[in-house]
């Protein structure tokens, strides 16, 4: 087309004609134009904000929003599919401008905080005008499909009485009871993590899910070599005990597949949160799993209410004395607040979920890291041996012998085993990339520390303005993999979290303190992980018991432990590849 000869009117006319003749093509062209325009406009805004950052005006800076192509949706696709790795890439490429940056998603601004001092200010400072409530409502609506029943609970009752029960989980009284029950089950069952039964019919659920195969039998009934997929083996072994401790043994007996449903549902967490409807392929089985969980908790709570009122809940619920106080108290508070049954079913289902999506994979990763380093394995065993002992079964004179069991000193595992504890912290640093999400209630200013500014190579600390209605995303994994704070970040170093002053007195032993430092894997503030005190004991407990009771080598990869890759989800990462191992029992130490 010759522009000079025909003038603008003719151009317009011919464009309109082309568009009418090729509607699909012109739709495509329009979309591309809109995207290009969006990219240019957001790019200009971004450059202006970046150049503002270096100006030495005193006031707080505007957080730069990264440029994006797709209107409204913005960075949504990259965020949902890439998670923490996407956020880390962006933070690193921003260099010294990366302490805080923003994404635009679904027409809202998400401020991504990577500087530990700013994260600290947001999470810990009680005066920060932030709330997680809209996010909790959103999760309950999209992930739990609560049919609006949580939103319908009177806010005062929800956030004080019902949510308040969770705070009790951090107290010693809850932890002592819950941990005692967990220790007892671990003492009894670790021997039969793999039972030696060849037929799936005789195997436990976690053995079947881990495809346990007996490779060879030893001299006596107790000794054998078995192959298993380590991740499902541990995830379900732990999940079974955790569910039992939280909801009582009747629940796991009546609903033996509840953990499978929970992980099925969790596998679509990001898609649910993004509002993906359940008829989309791949969502149906997760939605059905969710419905089964909700019905199971409904059934359990029905029975529990009968039980507390002195009525007979029926033969399937013959003993409800071991329902944990958290679940019991929350059920009662929900009912007092006039909640619909679906409110308590989803609300307490969420506790079961929170209990299993982080701790179980962390236990898998920790066990894997310890076995993959023979020196560390040897050292951990030596450190732990006094506190995890094996008790030979007393001869009961019957043909079927009782199984041996462990005798575990849980308090000592936590306070006297710095290598075990250090391995736990380091495992979380590498594999628990949790995220805290908050909403800004009033405009407020956050300021990074001098030290963090220096780490980024800046001369002075900067302040940033966060505006009312914006969201804050704190991806803890971005900091946890930052080489400026954790030298050689990919390396597993169980002594990394040992307090610095021990270097002067490197005798090791029980005086070494293991500290979280700048790592905030438990989140913080009002919504801080309520399972922290429990999970800390739980993880070292399972890891120590397994490490003492079992020998393990990987199958394939020439007998080497190869990192199986990281799949990101709502909780700790899960392995991409199957980790097949060969296990045999240790019968004495
Ligand atoms: C290694 C294991 C675990 C890790 C890394 C972890 C991490 C977290 C994180 C990051 C949060 C969100 C905090 C925030 O938004 O700032 C959270 C919340 C929560 N976690 Fe954990 N968690 C773990 C184990 C557990 C366990 C075993 C339980 C239950 C016994 C539990 C119960 C909860 C609950 C109830 C919440 C919600 C708290 C609230 O909304 O007030 N967690 N957890
Ligand atoms: C740049 O800073 C000035 C004042 O310091 C402010 O008025 C302006 O809105 C800022 N521009 C951007 C894009 O952040
Ligand atoms: C950081 O911002 C400054 C201006 O404030 C700019 O000159 C520099 O190129 C930016 N660095 C990166 C890595 O984007
Ligand atoms: C996006 O948000 C702004 C203000 O928050 C609002 O005025 C606008 O209508 C929204 N646009 C869409 C398409 O939702
Ligand atoms: C337990 O039994 C094993 C072999 O069956 C034996 O080697 C070990 O010494 C016994 N331990 C104790 C404490 O009796």
Automatic annotation (TrEMBL):
Keywords: Iron, Lipid biosynthesis, Lipid metabolism, Metal-binding
Any Pfam family: p450
Localization of this protein: Endoplasmic reticulum membrane
Protein name: Cytochrome P450
Classification via InterPro entries: Cyt_P450, Cyt_P450_E_grp-IV, Cyt_P450_sf
Signal peptide boundaries: none
Source organism (scientific name): Exophiala sideris
CDD domains the record matches: CYP7_CYP8-like (cd11040)
Membrane topology of this protein: Single-pass membrane protein
Principal cellular location given in the protein's record: endoplasmic reticulum
Cofactor(s) recorded in Swiss-Prot or TrEMBL: heme
Family, as annotated: Belongs to the cytochrome P450 family.
Keyword field contains RNA-binding: no
């Amino acid at each position: 087309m010759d522009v000079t000869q025909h003038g603008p009117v003719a151009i317009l006319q011919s464009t309109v004609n082309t568009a009418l003749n090729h509607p699909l093509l012109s739709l495509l062209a329009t979309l591309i134009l809109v995207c290009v325009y969006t990219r240019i406009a957001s790019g200009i805004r971004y450059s202006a904000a970046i150049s503002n950052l270096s100006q030495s005006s005193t006031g707080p800076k505007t957080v730069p929003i990264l440029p994006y192509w797709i209107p409204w949706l913005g960075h949504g696709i990259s965020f949902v599919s890439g998670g923490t790795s996407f956020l880390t890439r962006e933070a690193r490429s921003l260099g010294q401008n990366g302490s805080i940056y923003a994404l635009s998603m679904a027409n809202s601004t998400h401020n991504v905080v990577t500087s530990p001092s700013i994260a600290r200010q947001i999470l810990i400072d009680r005066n920060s005008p932030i709330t997680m409530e809209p996010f909790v409502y959103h999760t309950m609506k999209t992930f739990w499909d609560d049919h609006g029943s949580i939103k319908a609970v009177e806010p005062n009752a929800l956030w004080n009485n019902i949510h308040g029960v969770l705070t009790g989980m951090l107290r010693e009284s809850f932890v002592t009871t819950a941990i005692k029950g967990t220790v007892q089950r671990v003492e009894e069952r670790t021997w039969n993590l793999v039972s030696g039964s060849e037929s799936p019919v005789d195997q436990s659920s976690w053995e079947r899910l881990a495809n346990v195969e007996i490779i060879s039998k030893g001299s006596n009934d107790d000794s054998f070599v078995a192959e298993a997929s380590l991740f499902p083996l541990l995830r379900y072994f732990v999940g079974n005990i955790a569910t039992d401790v939280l909801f009582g043994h009747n629940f796991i007996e009546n609903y033996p597949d509840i953990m499978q449903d929970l992980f099925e549902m969790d596998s679509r967490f990001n898609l649910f949160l993004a509002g993906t409807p359940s008829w989309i392929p791949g969502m149906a089985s997760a939605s059905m799993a969710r419905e089964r969980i909700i019905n199971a908790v409904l059934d359990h709570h029905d029975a529990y209410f009968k039980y507390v009122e002195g009525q007979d809940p029926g033969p399937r619920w013959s003993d409800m004395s071991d329902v944990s106080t958290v679940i019991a108290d929350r059920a009662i508070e929900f009912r007092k607040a006039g909640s619909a049954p679906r409110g308590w079913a989803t609300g307490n289902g969420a506790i079961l979920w929170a209990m299993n999506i982080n701790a179980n994979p962390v236990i898998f990763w920790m066990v894997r890291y310890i076995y993959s380093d023979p020196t560390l394995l040897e050292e951990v065993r030596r450190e732990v041996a006094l506190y995890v002992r094996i008790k030979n079964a007393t001869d009961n004179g019957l043909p079927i012998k009782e199984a041996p069991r462990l005798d575990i000193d849980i308090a000592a595992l936590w306070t006297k085993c710095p290598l075990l504890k250090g391995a736990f912290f380091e495992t979380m640093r590498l594999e628990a990339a949790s995220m805290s999400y908050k909403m800004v209630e009033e405009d407020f200013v956050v300021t990074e520390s001098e030290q963090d500014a220096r780490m980024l190579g800046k001369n002075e600390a900067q302040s940033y303005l966060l505006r009312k209605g914006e969201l804050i995303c704190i991806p803890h994994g971005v900091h946890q993999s930052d080489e400026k704070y954790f030298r050689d970040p990919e390396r597993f170093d169980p002594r990394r979290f040992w307090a610095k002053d021990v270097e002067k007195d490197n005798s090791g032993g029980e005086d070494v303190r293991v500290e979280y430092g700048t790592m905030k894997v438990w989140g913080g503030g009002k919504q801080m992980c309520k399972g922290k005190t429990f999970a800390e004991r739980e993880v070292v407990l399972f890891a120590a018991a397994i490490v003492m009771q079992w020998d393990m080598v990987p199958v394939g990869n020439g007998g080497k432990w190869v990192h199986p890759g990281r799949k990101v989800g709502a909780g700790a990462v899960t392995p991409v590849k199957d980790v097949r191992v060969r296990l045999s029992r240790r019968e004495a130490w």
